[in-house]
Amino acid sequence: MRIGVLTAGGDCPGLNAVIRSVVHRALAGHGDEVIGFEDGFKGLLDGRYRSLDLNAVSGILARGGTILGSTRLERTRLHEAADNWRQLCGAYGLDVLIPIGGEGTLTAARMLADAGMPVVGVPKTIDNDISATDRTFGFDTAVTVATEAIDRLKTTAESHQRVMVVEVMGRHAGWIALESGMAGGAHGICLPERPFDPADLVAMVEERFARGKKFAVICVAEGAHPAAGTMDYGKGIVDQYGHERFIGIGTALAVELEQRLGKEAKPVILGHVQRGGVPTAYDRILATRFGWHAVEAAHKGAFGHMTALHGTSVDLVPLADAVTTLKRVPENRMDEAESVF
Amino acid sequence: MRIGVLTAGGDCPGLNAVIRSVVHRALAGHGDEVIGFEDGFKGLLDGRYRSLDLNAVSGILARGGTILGSTRLERTRLHEAADNWRQLCGAYGLDVLIPIGGEGTLTAARMLADAGMPVVGVPKTIDNDISATDRTFGFDTAVTVATEAIDRLKTTAESHQRVMVVEVMGRHAGWIALESGMAGGAHGICLPERPFDPADLVAMVEERFARGKKFAVICVAEGAHPAAGTMDYGKGIVDQYGHERFIGIGTALAVELEQRLGKEAKPVILGHVQRGGVPTAYDRILATRFGWHAVEAAHKGAFGHMTALHGTSVDLVPLADAVTTLKRVPENRMDEAESVF
Amino acid sequence: MRIGVLTAGGDCPGLNAVIRSVVHRALAGHGDEVIGFEDGFKGLLDGRYRSLDLNAVSGILARGGTILGSTRLERTRLHEAADNWRQLCGAYGLDVLIPIGGEGTLTAARMLADAGMPVVGVPKTIDNDISATDRTFGFDTAVTVATEAIDRLKTTAESHQRVMVVEVMGRHAGWIALESGMAGGAHGICLPERPFDPADLVAMVEERFARGKKFAVICVAEGAHPAAGTMDYGKGIVDQYGHERFIGIGTALAVELEQRLGKEAKPVILGHVQRGGVPTAYDRILATRFGWHAVEAAHKGAFGHMTALHGTSVDLVPLADAVTTLKRVPENRMDEAESVF
Amino acid sequence: MRIGVLTAGGDCPGLNAVIRSVVHRALAGHGDEVIGFEDGFKGLLDGRYRSLDLNAVSGILARGGTILGSTRLERTRLHEAADNWRQLCGAYGLDVLIPIGGEGTLTAARMLADAGMPVVGVPKTIDNDISATDRTFGFDTAVTVATEAIDRLKTTAESHQRVMVVEVMGRHAGWIALESGMAGGAHGICLPERPFDPADLVAMVEERFARGKKFAVICVAEGAHPAAGTMDYGKGIVDQYGHERFIGIGTALAVELEQRLGKEAKPVILGHVQRGGVPTAYDRILATRFGWHAVEAAHKGAFGHMTALHGTSVDLVPLADAVTTLKRVPENRMDEAESVF
Fold first, then answer.
1. Is the pLDDT of residue A71 over 90?
2. What is the pLDDT of residue A259?
3. Over the stretch A11-51, which tens digit does the pLDDT of each residue have?
4. B128-158, pLDDT tens digit by residue?
5. Which residue of B33, B292, B297, D203 shows the fewest CB atoms closer than 10 Å?
6. Distance from CA of D197 to the nearest CA of B (A)
7. Are A11 and C71 a contacting pair at CB < 8 A?
8. C126 has binding-site annotation
9. How does DSSP assign C240-288, residue by residue?
10. Torsion region of A234: left, alpha or beta (phi above 0 gives left; psi -120 to 50 gives alpha)
């Protein structure tokens, strides 16, 4: 078999581990050939690819980023790919394509599969918001990085009597905020799934100070937002080129708390450190298993499917199921955390 | 409700997170009282306990060890406890006991429950070998510590052309070796579940050297053993008091490889660093969820059960199911790893 | 002897290690008594203190923050302390005061010493900008945290062809930016000591892209600033309460580069994670040595001095020397880094 | 100029950072050429080398090991090199050789320099035992790894009432044991510089248990040894091939304590994890500075010297001074640690 692999979308620790695993399984397990397309679907369309042998993937298991590069995909060019998939496969001698990516990439993968192209997807998102799989690789690393930051902030908050607001990633789903908030012991957690009222956070902080715990750490997902009418955001950032940009919920909430509490409240915006660098052991293992099963799926002809974790097993699910609904934090998980506002 | 909690058995990162979670949920969620018995079942029998309020569990979420202490349990004294459970509960005003522990502790918990005592168990083992739950807390930390060690050893092995044998924990089940071996990219993995032949490892190393990869890292569970007749262990360690002790499979295998390969092979025995210290974010979250659900189970009267992770949910399973069979690494998980010998 | 200890100023990993070391050396080495004032000089003036025995400092060596608390000091109240130092010492039975703090604290310490009070200072700053000592504890931890962030960002920048601007602490001296920039391999470093021209950074990035290295990471101290006339900052942040605040050099520079390069440039502001949490081994050792030597200095009657690292030795220097000039990054250190703009 | 670089001796985190820095400074700062000899002096003699340009050293700053490889040097072949240095330099067009290594390598470097070869040395040892420099790179990483292990062991020791003996590297000098023991808060530290009496350790542990601190962690350098007549080692390890090997001081001491205390005492031998893997920020910076200054020294014609850290400066010292005396832990440093036995 001749297998093509590509990575698309934003960065996610574990991408290289999937690539390595695909190559190992394909070459050592089946005697296949593997080629890697550069910069995601662009490389597929523009004919930029390279052969991936064991040496090409040596030493990349623990490395962040992706050796294949990745760019955001243009939708129009994807239709072009779907229409010409036979030619593309012919040109590269491709028997199957394994795209590794998030919601956008898997939607694209489905489009190609629907057109008839032999495709097996591997889901990837640090946000953990793909509903067809229990977890995605990259998520554990993001939670770990965010938790380490909260750990560090907590000692400062406690000994210096500070209120701190940590903004973590998660635009549409609050998994990173939920889990890093739980792991770090945040006193308040704000999620996109449940609009919060800043007055409740103010009450929580004041109750803490009243009983002698003169600090608080609040963990807020970048996509969290206040309930209608409870708080506004000002003009945000007005930069030197006159552009206005959203101030960010972390900063806005810190301003709001500072004003209402009459105490200093500091925002910390973790940003891209959550999506780069060495993957955790957990993510390397999950990524490696996904790569292995993607190759097996290809050999079984299970096209139009993607790998998914269910309990302790890696299974295959139809791409159609994977991208229909976003996996958001359910009420019962919020209950367990105790501190979701 | 008045809830008693205790920790028993060997150390396991996340124990404090469970204790904290039990206290938080019981006090804040239900207005319960919580007492903690010291040094496991000993404290229960000897009347050594203390009240656990919010202050008592402040700051312990990320701390290794257990604030309650733990000692190995004596079986005869446990029968004493089972026979007198009514008196014990009466003396402490106890409505439910939540023992946190491994196979031995859960067996004891079951014995107490069978005698009629209201008990809800929380499973704990770094070895991940309890069959009724997908995972146990402590395991992720152990795998993480072992993986970081393998990462470090690999760079030395590669640049200095060395063969290295890393021995990790796992007497009866090879989960730590399997997962840290996969995450660290070990070239060979030996598990208790499958006796290995040193000749196969020798062949693997020689094949690597032949194609220019002049190093190898082998990850071996402490309970792994060679197939009958393939290798012996010598006298082992003969210490200054004349005691003979098992040399350990890691050391024995390194000696064997050195002799057969004619190349230096170094053993590294990770030992107790795998079971202490700050738990990973993953383990803190799982431990916190287990504590929360144990309190809920107590309030529902679900005695004789323990908490368990199934997929993304924490459920309850009968203690009877928990301790009948050891969860060992199945064949299909070995296949995925590619490098199990 | 009866020794008073206090911590003042911003957070700094290693404060607890100094407190512990003072107590260990004073009690075990000399049979002294130690009391700790709460919340810095405030506790001294308000009579809030507690006795510190071995149990009080058990387990704090590796903990961030300070068990004594810290608040910013009010200058007028300090004059009050200087004027009444005899009464204060009398009231507490104090033979010597050991204040641990940064430039402001050491200036206060000097004022007290000049008034006649027996004082031995211990310098503390994550910024490493105190000229009388080779290094201060807290700095190594700050550099380590910043370096880990740059490591993570670099893999993302590389595989996703990004320009990233990391803002680290350092208002008046650029040591953290210099060293984390060197350790992380930043392609550009901007320091308060040398105004930069954004055009030079643009040229560097373009040169990199031209030779196929399609990413760049720039490390900028929060106190770095552009040369006069080369760039402005806009209105900055305009929050919901109408306050205008400085946008921050990291964000401003990212905007500037994005505009001039026509490529996305992302800012990451590390903030307070650099000053909290578990200290590195280096900082724990330096802090421990400082505490030990402060007690020895007290016993030698070397008042009006502070501890300082010179080469491999911990010595004493007059407080007068410590606070006269800020230690800034010299030209030759910038040369070594190669990438300072 | 045409510069040759090589790495020799055991592994040491930071080797790659030196190589990278030499290449960066030589190419970007001076327009030089750099070649790297493979496997230490062997590559020099056998003509195995490769050209090192910017791409060759891209991404290696934070990587453990050495991209050039390293083997232990054979003394007879070195004399061969010294005798033929003119031919070797002629053959490679070499203007200067920069060997990076420990005591053995620097002695070899001195021999070559004495013969007239243009040589600039860079000192390297995780043991920190080279007297002409305040510190060497690799040492901070080793101390950090050992400290993290002690941190982990301490929580287990405390909650499970254990005595633990951690053996760290350091055959002739006890720097790693001293500093990791201080940073980890070990209750006893044993160094090669001061023979210990196990009876003193027994007394310390018993005193701790008597006052309720029912655990102890002892940090012992691999080269530490008991005072004459205080303890013996037994036969050690007798392996399956009948070889007797030293049991190791960590294991022997644990056996001794267990026997004398009547309590379980567990040894943990950290081994090679201390010398591999990602270097700390501190070590990357020192290594980078050493590389930079080695190239400058070459251009100044300061042959027969090596780089050295003195206070905050990197200077040059004659190779003759570097290798005459081993830097051992002095009495005053032991006093500061309080717990050296």
1. no
2. 96
3. 999 999 999 999 999 999 999 999 999 999 999 999 999 99
4. 999 999 999 999 999 999 999 999 999 999 9
5. D203
6. 16
7. no
8. yes
9. TTS-EE---HHHHHHHHHHHHHTS-EEEEE-GGGGGSSSPPHHHHHHHH
10. left
Residue ranges of domains in chain A: 2-138+279-322, 143-275
Pair type for strands B265-269 and D265-269: unpaired
Cβ within 8 Å, pair D285-C140 = no
Domain at C2-138+279-322: CATH code: 3.40.50.450
Q: B239–D247: do the CB atoms touch at under 8 Å?
A: yes
Say whether C300 counts as a known binding-site residue.
Answer: no
**Cα C302 from Cα C118, distance rounded (Å):** 9
Query: What CA–CA distance (Å, rounded) separates C204 from C196?
Result: 13
Neighbours, chain D (3 or more CB pairs < 8 A): B, C
Contacts of D336 in chain C (CB under 8 A): 288-289, 292-293, 314
- The shortest C-alpha distance from A236 to chain C (Å) reads 5
Q: How far apart are the first and last CA of chain A?
A: 52
What is the CB-side half-sphere exposure of residue D335 using CA atoms within 13 A?
9
C55 pLDDT higher than 80: yes
Chain D residue numbers with beta carbons less than 8 Å from the beta carbon of C25 are 338
Note the helical H segments in chain C: 15-24, 30, 41-46, 75-83, 85-92, 103-114, 139-159, 175-184, 198-210, 249-261, 281-300, 319-322, 331-337
Which residues of chain B does A285 touch, with a Cβ-Cβ cutoff of 8 Å?
143, 179, 182-183
Q: For the segment C158-208, what is each residue's pLDDT rounded down to a tens digit?
A: 988 999 999 999 999 999 999 999 999 999 999 999 999 999 999 999 999
Tokens 């925002």 correspond to: A267
> Does the beta-carbon distance from B159 to D243 stay under 8 Å?
no
D243 is in an annotated binding site: no
Percent of chain C with pLDDT over 70: 100
**For residues B104 and B73, is the Cβ–Cβ distance under 8 A?**
yes
Q: Which CATH architecture has domain D142-275?
A: 3-Layer(aba) Sandwich (3.40)
CA distance D246 to chain B (A): 10
Q: In chain C, which residues have their Cβ closer than 8 Å to the Cβ of D179?
A: 281, 285
User: Which residues neighbour B188 within 8 Å (Cβ) at sequence distance 6 or greater?
Assistant: B201, B204, B216, B217, B218, B219, B339, B341
Averaged pLDDT score across all residues of chain D = 95
Residue A74 has pLDDT above 80, yes or no: no
User: Active site residue: D127, D129, D140, D283, which one?
Assistant: D127
The per-residue pLDDT for range A228-273, each reduced to its tens digit, is: 999 998 889 999 999 999 999 999 999 999 999 999 999 999 999 9
Q: C153 to chain A: which residues are within 8 Å by CB?
A: 272-273, 276-277
Q: Which of B124, B12, B8 lies closest to B65, judged by CA?
A: B12
Percentage above 90 pLDDT, chain A: 91
Pairing, β B236-238 against β B244-245: antiparallel
* Domain spanning C141-275: CATH 3.40.50.460: yes
Confidence at residue B229, expressed as pLDDT on a 0 to 100 scale: 94
The beta-carbon neighbor of B268 closest among D63, D267, D273 is: D273
Residue C5 CA to residue C92 CA, distance in Å, equals 12
Whether B183 and A281 lie within 8 Å, measured CB to CB: yes
**Which candidate from D147, D151, D292 shows the least CB-CB separation from C336?**
D292
CA-to-CA dists, residue A245 to A234, A242, A253, B173, angstroms:
10, 10, 16, 54
Please give the Cα distance from A20 to A297 (Å, whole number).
17
CATH topology of domain B143-275: Rossmann fold (3.40.50)
Nearest residue in A to B312, CA atom: A134
pTM of the predicted model as reported, rounded to 2 decimal places: 0.97
CA–CA separation, C298 vs C337, rounded Å? 40
Q: Which residues of B are catalytic?
A: 127
Chain C to chain D Cβ contacts (< 8 Å): 91
